[in-house]
Amino acid sequence: MEPVELDGGVIVRALAAGDGPALAAAYRRNREHLEPWEPERTESFFHTGTHEREVTALLDRMHAGTAIALVLVDGTTDGAGIIGRMNLSDVVRGAFQNANLGYWIDGEYTGRGLATTAVGVALHAARRAGLHRVQAGTLVHNAASQTVLERNGFARIGLARRYLRIAGRWQDHVLFERLLDD
């Protein structure tokens, strides 16, 4: 995927070899911001080596066609640090042609519409990969993320009770779908 420039010099691009240190730094910088929305993280999660291994594994999944991993980068800063992620994971081919969408953006960049635009870029990448459908789930109280999905044409399809263990407890999620041929 060719890089896409969003407002304010933010760039969405494919995850690349060598992104591990910047990704680890982004998670450390956003530890408190992301904590209510993610699984509990051990201290080792924030180490650079953990993210170097994760990048390698994601690149393998991308090569196999089972994932599309994107990062948001602030191109206006020295070092162009990673400020967010968009992942299309668990790509299933055959009759389903589906992926699950997950995303986050740096706490310093929220409220600017960047997540909404970046999800649109991820959907474009999913279409180019031949997918028919993308699913996403949000915590019931995550109105901001639900707005991002709805602005990108996702429809609510239900409630999954005790769906994922987030912030140390099983939590309900609102499920969404987007059919890409609509």
Task: Tally the helices.
Answer: 5
Query: Residue share in helices?
Result: 25-40%
Beta content = 25-35%
Helix and strand pattern: EEHHHEEEHEHEE
Oligomer designation: single chain
Q: What is the gyration radius calculated from CA atoms?
A: 16 Å
According to DSSP, the number of beta strands is: 8
Name the CATH superfamily assignment.
Gcn5-related N-acetyltransferase (GNAT)
Number of domains as seen in the coordinates: 1
Overall 3D form = globular
CATH architecture label name: 3-Layer(aba) Sandwich
- Sheet with most strands: 8 strands, mixed
Q: Which CATH first-tier class would you pick? A: Alpha Beta
Terminal-residue CA separation? 22 Å
By CATH, the topology is Aminopeptidase
Account of the protein in words:
The chain has 5 helices and 8 strands. A hairpin with a 7-residue loop joins strand 3 and strand 4 (82-92). Helix 1 packs across helix 3. It has helices at residues 20-29, 31-34, 48-64, 114-128, 143-151, and strands at 4-5, 10-14, 68-74, 82-92, 98-105, 133-139, 155-166, 169-179. Strands 1-2-3-4-5-6-8-7 form an 8-stranded mixed β-sheet, sandwiched between helices. With 182 residues, it is an alpha+beta fold. The mean pLDDT is 96.
